[in-house]
Description:
CATH superfamily of the largest domain in chain B: Response regulator
CATH topology of chain A: ABC transporter involved in vitamin B12 uptake, BtuC
Distance between the termini of chain A: 32 Å
Largest sheet of chain A: 2 strands, antiparallel
Number of strands of chain B: 17
Strand content of chain B: 15-25%
Oligomer: heterotrimer
Amino acid sequence: MSSANSAFYKKDLLPVATFAVVLLTMPFWFKFIGGYSGLDTKIVIWIIFAIGFGILLGYMGFLSFGHAAFFGTSAYFTGLMLLHFSANILPAMVVGIISGIIMAFIIGFLTLKRTGIYFSILTLAFGEMLHSMVLSTLQDYTGGDNGLTGLPTPMLFGLKMQGDNVFYLTVIVAIVMYYIARRIIRSPFGLMLKAIKSNQVRLEYTGVNVARYKLLGFVISAVYASVAGSLMIVYEPYVASEFLSWHLSGHIVIMTVLGGVGTLFGPMLGAAFMLYFENVLSVTMGEQWLLILGAVFMLTVIFLPGGFVEGGSKIKKKLMGGDE
Amino acid sequence: MTDKKEKKIWTRRDVLKASVGVAVASATPMFFMKDAWAEEAIGNYPVKGSTVKFGFNVPQTGAYADEGADELRGYKLAVEHLNNGGGMLETLKPSSLKGNGVLGKKVEYVTGDTQTNPDAARTSARRMIDRDGVIMWSGGSSSATAIAQQYLAQEKGVIFMSALTHSNDTTGKDKRRYGFRYFFNAHMTGKALAPVLSKAYGKDRRAFHLSADYSWGHTQFESMKDFTEKEGWTTVQNIMTPLKSTDFSAFLTAVLNSDADVLVLNHYGKNMVNSLSQAVSFGMRELQKNGKTMEIVIPLYSRLMAQGAGIDNVEGVYGTTSWTWKQKDAGSQVFTNAFTKVHGFPPSQAAHVAYCQTLLYANACEMAGTFYPPAVIKALEDFKFSGTGTGDTLYRGEDHQCMRDILVVQGNSKAKSSGKYDLLNIHATVKADAVAYPVSTFKGELGPYKPA
Amino acid sequence: MVNSIFLQLLTGLQLGALYVLISLGLALIFGTLGVVNFAHGAMFMVAAYLGVVISQAEWGGWGVAIVLVPIILFALGLLMERGLIRFFYARPHTDQILVTFGLAIVLQETFKWYFGANNLPFATPDWGSGIMRLHDYLPFLEGFVAYPKWRLILTAVSLITVAGLFALLQFTTFGLVVRAGMRDSEMLRLLGVNISRRFAIVFALGVGIAGIAGVFGGPVTQVDPGIGMVFLVPSFLVVVIGGMGSLPGAVLASFLIGLAISFTATIPALANIIVYLIAIIILLFRPRGLMGQKGVME
């Protein structure tokens, strides 16, 4: 027991506690860098999404261009629950997240049969198909292009989920999920994911049931996406058809790569950066924020594939001067 | 090992408990403070400082971007006149506007891009509310964006004056206390247009509809179908075309293959520019079907769309609009002159509705003597006014829809046109009572005066 | 009845023709270089804009545009390959996707910045406008059957381009090297063939074909900065359905998709998802695509 405890302190306590403190105090310091209330919640939601996506891309090595499918599915089911069942967020979120997980098992089972570019395009195709379905085929249930409107104010057993309430709920969820992600990465399962990334075929030859691990890794990343999607509806009680679009899938890719693939911290940083850029810096930059971000993204992929995290460690090395 | 046991050890549980404790502790003051202000502060009221901020959320990209650009011009002109006098301040009756701002505060504004997309619209609106502190906002050029924003308005307690939204739902099943519509709707279009069409084309027509696949397209199709069938027409088929379509050839082929002799395009903005041009390129205005010449109808018209499609394509085509610059009444003239002076070209109905909505809101604040949303809402409800170019208009309190005149227009011909902005001829002005309808025609509840 | 089917067929072919022009370049580039070019849609967009500008310029005109735009795009392709893509041959596929995706965004935003987000009207030339009275030429048609001239021209251009490309690949030495490179590039290098210069030309050729697509397809699809992304996803799906690296496959799949869209137009609920459904089914049950080589990307 004590060795597990000491592992906890050394590896997890400091990062998780730092994470917790930074987020919990956000409402106080965010406005000094131009942030505003509401944006902080959004950033935390995307951070959750990015952590999961980082597990899939950074650790397992699979580039999905269709993760909006899980964000969006969870969002729609959460919304539908709020609209038709009860304004209480607990059953709504549970159903939303479960729907995302089921969708992940289905899509994962079908897409993970292929690798590389085929996998990416398949995920893109599934995502776009769901998007189209929600717009036309299922529009009687989903509200079509209007989205799901008229949702009641979400409640948590009598507590109105608005403003800061939502922020703190999101932060608590984020802290827990960050901790879980750290444990996953360092567990034997996490090792398996890294092995899949490095050489899937060789792993298969050693007798490991790679398909099962791939599917689990995929589903885990989808859980994060689903939680984020569900929280998004608690934050903003409106389900947009855009939540299933490949623009959303593209955004999470940009965030993760920009921040730094291969770590858990990178994607979080990327998410915060992109949202800050889009909502705060865009005021000074005007209409061209996406152009600048796109250029930064390209430069990152070309010269700094490890993202900001790699940049940060390079700077640290320079400052420390040479070795360690 | 023994060293560690002597230190005070925090277990995992302790850490989690502490985090939750910190979270609850920091959140608690927020609960109390919010309740204490609940009576006084709604949305971004009270307004502090010597200026008041309006938000203008228009499509700067996407299918309705041209309309959005003109809306923005209308908004800017309205702010100019509110702050300095002039324009419709001279013709609006009854008016409490003084031309020195609103309630003594100068009007400033921020703008946002709805991208003709309800999610972007809502996000942008939310940013204007949360970050920029607007006391009201206006805009939107697709009913989906207007409806999404209306719900946000109700949640946040900030009034939304919708601009271009034509769907019945906006003041029908999706009506909201914090949303107001000056523009007319599909029901009024159907009611005004159908008799004109049956007179011009006969009662024995078969119509094929292509409709934009979202709230507005649906309601306009339904309204046109109901009213044309009352005149004796048959509805052959309706295809809902995706909003993002640019190539309508597959749908137009289906129209050619059917036995329809009228094509009704329930499209707006770029959709309409494309579908009309392509329909004409398929020879649909020369076609002979069932012994008659095929005709095209565009129920919702705008001069900007006509410009985009080209005068040759719109010549003789019937439709309805809210307003055109060719109207001769005092309010329209003073607005058109002011606008043309700044921009060198006349305003479209998009600029007109943007301008009027801004003035109407400001006027309501002056009448109520406050920016407090419930009071401003009450001032607007059942407000009767004139001098804005839509005849004697009533802002109906039960659904926040203006009961007003609308225009049946027809595309001009190149020969008779006086210039590149003279594209629509007024065929008839249909008075407010001719297109009015009872509130019970559509479902929906307005909701409470205080945000949900 | 005959009219009805004929018209739907024609529309399907015409829709397919545009997909052919866009996906042919994509398939060529992937088949030979194994490069996934997410910026290919953006190339189409650039070409369409160039088409508008040149066809309406005083010094230009339509004839000039038709000749100049593919050439400019070819040059652009060379620039892209030498300046960016060739550094990514050794890098994992995901990196290629990412950098070209980034490039697509940058191009789209740049054009939006310069031209505005609204679409530019792209008028067809006088010799290409109007309708063609098909019933004058085809006796089996009943009554009055017309079709827009420009769409027929587009279809013809598309077929000519396909024929031209195949001729190039089948009957020239250059084509022989390219085809060999598609089979086994490593072997070619070992044989001393300067593959990298050929690759640059192949890439440029693929982009040049997108140039043809842009200038002929622009009037049909409308010209705005987002048009590239709109076509990117379906083009990829077309290439995948046809078989990555198979040019006949891309052509076949394009027409298949065009016909599918045309014949399901009256059932929008189906028409909107038909492309994805077909792609998903193919990818799951015949991953090499309709005409791909066995073992490619399986």
